[in-house]
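Hi U.,

Before I forget, here's the chain from the pilot set. I'm dumping it here mostly so it's searchable later in email.
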Amino acid sequence: MSPTQRLHILKALNEAELETLGTAWEIFAHPHQCPPSLAPNDAPWLTWLMIGGRGAGKTRAGAEWIRAQALGLAPFATEAVERIALVGETEHDVREVMIEGVSGLLAVHPRRDRPTWSPSRKRLQWPNGAVAYAFSADDPESLRGPQFGCAWSDEMAKWRYAEAAFDMLQFGLRLGSQPRQLITTTPRPTALLKRLMADPSSAVTRAPTRANALNLAPTFLKRVMARYEGTRLGRQELDGEIIEDRPDALWSRALIERCRVADAPPLARIVVAVDPPASSSRRADACGIVAAGVTDNGLVHVLADETVRAATPALWAAKAIALWRRLDADALVAEVNQGGDMVRAVINEVDVSVPVTPVRATRGKWLRAEPVATLYEQGRVRHAGAFPALEDEMCDFALGGLSSGRSPDRLDALVWAVTALTVAARAAPRVREL
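Structure:
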């Protein structure tokens, strides 16, 4: 139906009908808010992990799933569960978010089915006799003894005593033919969360904040996305990604965040660095294309990452030259180990006026990258914006290369760009109009 048709129908409904429609969760739920049918091992799941960004609708989905379990509502339940556990980081979180919150358990029920909340007893009781008990993860011992047929754990990734509270809850999930649990959380790289995600009896659904955009304030999306999108914090809190550091990597996430700025200042020299692949087959390495500039006082700013995968020489050359033109760069720095004069020839075929500075690798990738990492630690390099794919390679690059075994093409191009701008006597910079 068109928006006009929907509005016409809604205007014709009375208050009771509107309430009934508003609680028909199966109609309005996003795919990530609906329980998966099976776990990865093709068996019924025992743990459902709903991992998402802030405002992705995790609390609403959790409350609706518990409502379905307590009342035996199809298609999310086959029978009513008599005893339920609600576990939050603190008692305050359970009450203010999971139970009394705007998307909590009391809010998602129509009046006829709404449970009675007894704060002093920390329990919800439904008209059919089902009962849910509230627990704080800060007190794992409180979960010792009670037994349940299902459970909802909220924001488990930030529980202080996550392992202990989770373990105590598992011992209590022993009622019914198949006790299940739902965990709703914004992710953090905790050992428990990673272990649960790898468990074959776990089903995982994911969603970024933008998946629930229609239910969020436009100003929130515009302001918060503009500020945090692509950063480590934004990828974790908005995109629902698990962002980790490799202990032996040359760069860390925290270091890169300290080097991030919104915009670059006037620059005295700009280069576009290209790390060409050995071939143009689909299995070939990507062509790293990274631009950077340097200020009069020697502060380098990374400006763009236009890396392209499975590209023909003509395609990556055109992309690199387009970036060179857009930034009005001074030179195009190209690594020539793989192609020698061919690299210059490919670039000249696209635009013979582009000044190409050939560079040749005489040392390994680690030895080339280490001095550049030192410049970051000294505060001499800035990222003018966010470059998630490039930053992932930086924080995954150690003495043995990337953990995936792939070539660090974006990082190679970055190293060439920064090196070209910082090595003394590389070339006399032309005077730019600042």
